[in-house]
Design a protein that fits this description.
heterodimer, A: 360 residues, 76% helix, B: 462 residues, alpha/beta, Rossmann fold, 2 domains, 7-stranded mixed β-sheet, 13 helices
Chain lengths: 360, 462
């Protein structure tokens, strides 16, 4: 495409291609993605909660951010490093329980809760990663699934006294943020329209942070090695790099994202369900990520919106919402292997070719 | 390019700085009081008499229709029960608006809406999953402004939903939930339950079963390995050992087991006289059918502590002679039962199950409490429900206890009929051996049993 722009004749078309060049330069910056995420958290709820029919609501918006953090982290593993984990519920649910227990017994400060959740997930990811990453491909997926189910049954049975078993953990107590800002406190005026309340700032803030962290990782040399491993593991090994260590790092980073999300979910729901450790949760996150489009930051976000929209809004109107979800998934995977976000990027490059084509 | 770069970075910094200042100013000066969760702030404009009480939860109601949320499992293992519940909820909403059913029977209800408001409803799918149930309920509360929601089928979903009810100050009427914890350790001020619990099942069964089979027997238990199964088997052990029987062993089986043959064989080999199958739903019909196929009923007596009609229908003739409990039966001989069963049959062409009656009753109880309170203001409605006694629910005298929001009520002890005697058309799968009555046979004090662990929390207007 760059050849095309160079070959463009001077004059108006040069202006156009110049603009496109600058646009590309802008887009490639990390700050662009972050600014995009910030713009998104301001605009998205306005549209989402005001749809003429089948509209959303604020706590679903917050839930979308929480799951999106989980999905972005999962995509770092699946999309960028090429490892399919089928046991990510361990990090989501395990950290959610840790957050719940911490809030009930130690402190209800939201930031501390998230920190504890993240640390728990990192520790779990280290242990399970070291054990599972001895094998690749389908074996890795099955091992992670097995560890996930093991955690589920431990939480359900032997640890039932602590976790509340099937009934879930109900003792969550969340204190005001930094000791003073009650999560339900709303903003007034313009700020109220843009940022709603303290709770929204907390969830949206973590979402933007997650996008920023993911972009940083993906753009770093370290992240480049992740992508190289996905493309050709053997070559990376020939370069003298310890592939296993990088894979473990990707697994742990991905677990840390899930941990943050799990902790935030405990704050959001003030309840931890044992289903959060069940294999279906691990399946959901795979579906969300693939539906949105793997190997991009905003793909998983798009997948999260679509999935949670069907699960929570469409389900209220159509009894066969699982069928709707299935049909959507099959259609997207079949027709657009790059996911919903792939459709967006596809349209973008078509438009762009059209623009350039007209000019020259 | 480099120049542009610095330029725009400076610009970005400038804008960032400006935004930061605005943000700080906003934080300093623009924080509202209020507990606003997006709706219900600003009181006074909510229909007649709305300004009597301050805004709380989804009170006051905007417009002239009050929205109820019916949150039942429409997918997953309990979808049969859920479908029957939903039919009953919709019937209840229809009766509240247009008369019919219990509305004609109860003095508190008019058949012309509730407290001057038309009744509107939203439905949701819990998928028998606690998180999904909670999210679905929060949609009803936040988006649809539900003033009350109801549902259940599985204690985990009920407990998750009533926790949300307490947070959001919106009432939750439990439907099918049998765990002790719902009105025990996990009870809340904003949740009410008419269904009995595992503890009361044990109380109801022990005297009748021990009288039937004799004293000093040995029993063997299998139970579904999760909270409900655990509390259920613990209650059975407690009440049957108090009655003089002794336990040989109690063995957990994984939830959703297909093949019980090895567990059942071990039970036979133990030499015990009676086998308790603490399983529910599909697990229950599977384990009892397999026990009979293995011929265990020739060596041992079988008891299935908690029954319902779909389960009995699934097990068919296997339940012949098997004891169990249920909350209500469409063939009971009293007026409220007849009225409800007839209205249900007329509308849907099938006999209502006991979960359907719970759903219908929960809606009616709430509506009647609103009428008595003269307002939808949640704390007042709660106070009306607390300590309320009624005898027009089709199962004798009932009382909604103030201390733990558990209804003290009669329980049916039933015994399965043989295949020939069963009549699917009219929902007859068992005979009612006895209506174990409160307080003679079942019930417990506020400081004992599950109630001892209950702390209800705040009304929201303190």
């Amino acid at each position: 495409m760059s050849e095309q722009t160079e070959a463009a004749t001077p004059g108006e078309s040069a202006d156009a291609s110049g603009l496109l060049d600058r646009w590309d330069g802008l887009r490639e910056r990390e700050s662009f993605s972050i600014a995009g995420a910030i713009a998104f958290v301001v605009v998205f709820p306005m549209i989402f909660t005001n749809l003429p029919a089948y509209n959303g609501y604020m706590s679903l918006v917050e839930l979308i951010y929480i799951w999106a953090i989980f999905a972005i982290g999962f995509d770092l593993l699946l999309g960028y490093t090429g490892l399919l984990s089928f046991g990510h519920a361990v990090f989501w649910g395990g950290s959610a329980y840790a957050a719940g227990l911490f809030s009930a017994n130690v402190s209800g400060e939201p930031l501390l809760i998230v920190l504890v959740a993240m640390v728990t997930a990192i520790v779990l990811a280290l242990i399970i990663g070291i054990l599972s990453l001895r094998r690749g491909g389908i074996y890795f997926a099955i091992l992670t699934l097995a560890f996930g189910q093991m955690m589920y049954f431990i939480a359900l049975g032997p640890l039932g006294g602590i976790t509340g078993g099937e009934d879930g953990f109900t003792g969550v107590t969340v204190d005001p943020l930094l000791g003073a800002l009650e999560l339900g406190t709303g903003f007034a005026g313009v700020l109220g329209t843009l940022l709603h309340d303290i709770g929204y700032v907390l969830f949206a803030g973590f979402f933007v942070l997650a996008v920023a962290a993911a972009v940083r990782i993906v753009r770093s040399p370290y992240g480049a090695i992740f992508q190289a491993i996905a493309e050709n593991e053997q070559r990376v090994r020939f370069l003298g790099l310890n592939v296993w260590r990088y894979k473990l790092a990707a697994f742990v980073i991905s677990g840390a994202f899930a941990g943050v999300a799990g902790g935030l979910h405990t704050i959001h729901a003030q309840y931890v369900a044992v289903g959060s450790l069940f294999w279906i949760t691990s399946g959901d996150i795979v579906i969300i990520t693939v539906l949105g489009g793997i190997g991009s930051i905003f793909g998983p976000v798009t997948g999260t919106i679509a999935f949670l929209y069907v699960e929570n809004i469409v389900s209220g109107e159509i009894a066969f919402w699982l069928l709707v979800l299935g049909a959507l998934f099959v259609t997207v995977v079949w027709l657009f292997p790059a996911g919903i976000w792939g459709i967006v990027t596809g349209i973008r490059s078509t438009v762009r070719e059209q623009l350039l084509g007209d000019d020259s | 390019m480099a120049e542009n770069d610095t330029q725009s970075r400076r610009d970005v910094l400038k804008t960032a700085g400006a935004a930061g200042t605005v943000g700080l100013a906003g934080l300093a000066g623009c924080l509202e009081g209020g507990n606003g969760n997006g709706n219900g702030n600003g009181n006074g404009n909510g229909g007649d008499g709305g300004s009597e009480y301050p805004a709380l939860g989804n009170y006051p109601i905007e417009g002239d229709a009050a929205t109820l949320g019916f949150n039942v499992p429409q997918t997953g293992p309990y979808q049969e029960e859920g479908a029957d519940e939903l039919r009953a909820y919709e019937l209840a909403a229809d009766h509240l608006n247009n008369g019919g059913g219990w509305v004609d029977l109860w003095d508190d209800l008019s058949g012309d809406g509730v407290n001057g408001y038309e009744i509107d409803y939203e439905t949701g799918d819990t998928a028998t999953d606690a998180d999904t149930a909670r999210e679905s309920a929060s949609r009803m509360i936040e988006r649809d402004n539900a003033i009350m929601y109801s549902g259940g089928s599985s204690s985990a979903t009920a407990i998750a939903q009533q926790g949300l009810a307490q947070q959001e100050n919106v009432l939750f009427m439990c439907c099918l939930t049998h765990s002790n914890d719902t009105t025990g350790g996990d009870c809340v001020r904003y949740g009410f339950r008419e269904m009995f619990n595992a503890y009361m099942t044990g109380q109801a069964l022990a005297p009748i079963v021990t009288e039937e089979y004799g004293d000093d027997l040995e029993f063997y238990q299998l139970y579904a390995d999760y909270t409900w199964g655990q509390t259920q088997q613990a209650s059975m052990r407690q009440f049957f050992e108090e009655a003089g029987w002794s336990e040989v062993d109690s063995v957990p089986t994984p939830l959703g087991t297909d093949d019980y043959s090895t567990f059942l064989q071990e039970a036979v080999d133990s030499g015990a006289d009676v086998l308790f199958l603490n399983h529910y739903g599909l697990d229950g019909s599977n384990s009892v059918s397999q026990a009979v196929d293995q011929g265990i009923n020739e060596d041992m007596e079988i008891v299935v502590p908690l029954y319902n009609v779909p389960m009995a229908a699934g097990a068919g003739g296997s339940i012949e002679g098997v004891f169990g409990t249920d909350g209500w039966d469409a063939n009971l001989d009293n007026e409220p039962t007849r009225v409800f069963a007839e209205a249900f049959e007329e509308e849907y062409g099938s006999t209502p199950s006991s979960p359907a009656r719970l759903a219908y009753s929960a809606t009616m109880q709430y509506a009647a409490a609103v009428e008595r309170a003269g307002t939808f203001y949640p704390p007042e409605v709660i106070r009306e429900l607390e300590g309320y006694e009624w005898d027009n629910g089709g199962i004798g005298e009932e009382i909604m206890r103030e201390c733990d929001h558990q209804t003290m009520r009669d329980i049916l002890v039933v015994r399965g009929l043989s295949e020939e005697e069963q009549d699917a058309e009219s929902g007859r799968y068992w005979e009612v051996v006895e209506q174990a009555s409160y307080p003679d046979a079942v019930g417990y004090e506020c400081d004992s049993g599950p109630a001892a662990e209950c702390e209800l929390g705040e009304y929201g207007d303190e």
